[in-house]
Design brief:
By secondary structure, the chain is an alpha/beta fold. 34% of the residues lie in helices and 19% in strands.
Length: 280
């Protein structure tokens, strides 16, 4: 069945909890979508529980909150769930505490890795145990990506198997209402494909990154623990991440129509949201 067209106000009446995507839903790279602030204030007035469930792996929650509040959005650090918050449990479960980590991302990404117990290595240090691809910003892009591919190839050729982590699996993001940009998931694919081309006789799985963010279950499990309700709707702009992840978690989903994924009536898709929202 196709999604049902509805309004955000109707969803606010229907559900007790809300998981809201950030980029492409509430904000874009250079501002806030019209009506987003009013929507969050409405949820607060109604006593609804809500969280911003974001794949952004470039900012500490406090810094992200400050930025959103400067834009007029009532988002506190306690409202934010991002994939880097999962690193401490992951590092502990995989015995990565104390491991040397190359981090592709700005300084806040490195802070999260340090807080999880990793030791952040310099970008020109070829000996690392873990590669964490967080963001496309914060470093000389092409030079760093080339060097990382080269260093990974040397490590694999020497019989080492570095752990490959991808907090943000998004391929693209909305830079503004009209422009798209490449996100960390695209960088990870480039590295994986480059390694597979270098070692064609090895299984592609050897070069696969472990994703942490949406649509993968740990993000939704963390958020649902915080919401303390299952009467939840997920709102986002990407079918492959927001909507698929919400459906896999057994939650209602609503696709907003002003972000990355564009819905067309009768389109063939293996992910179909429950609701379609055309404005805040």
């Amino acid at each position: 069945m196709p999604p049902i067209r509805t309004t955000f106000h109707a969803l606010a009446d229907r559900y007790d909890g809300f998981l809201l995507d950030a980029y492409g839903t509430l904000v874009h790279g250079s501002g806030v979508y019209p009506g987003a602030a009013e929507a969050l204030h409405l949820l607060d007035r109604m006593g609804k529980r809500w969280l911003m469930l974001t794949n952004d792996a470039s900012k500490l929650s406090v810094r992200a909150s400050d930025r959103y509040q400067s834009m007029g959005l009532p988002i506190t650090p306690g409202h934010i769930v991002n994939p880097l918050m999962l690193l401490p449990d992951l590092f502990a479960s995989r015995a990565l505490v104390g491991a040397r980590c190359r981090v592709l991302g700005p300084p806040d990404s490195c802070t999260y890795v340090t807080q999880a117990g990793g030791v952040v290595a310099a970008l020109d240090d070829p000996a690392f145990d873990v590669l964490v691809v967080c963001d496309e910003s914060g470093y000389p892009f092409l030079e760093t990506l080339d060097a990382t591919l080269t260093d990974l190839a040397h490590l694999f050729a020497a019989g080492r198997r570095p752990v490959l982590l991808l907090p943000n699996p998004d391929l693209t993001f909305t830079k503004d209402a009209h422009r798209l940009g490449f996100a960390a998931g695209t960088l990870a694919r480039m590295l994986s494909e480059g390694l597979h081309a270098r070692f064609p006789d090895r299984p592609a799985a050897d070069f696969a990154f472990q994703p942490l963010g949406k649509p993968h279950p740990p993000m939704y499990a963390r958020a649902l623990d915080l919401l303390s309700t299952r009467n939840v709707v997920v709102l986002g702009d990407q079918l492959a991440t927001d909507i698929r992840g919400g459906q896999d978690a057994g939650l209602a989903t609503a696709l907003v129509t002003w972000g990355v994924s564009q819905w067309r009536d009768q389109q063939r898709a293996d992910v179909v949201p429950d609701w379609l929202v055309e404005s805040w």
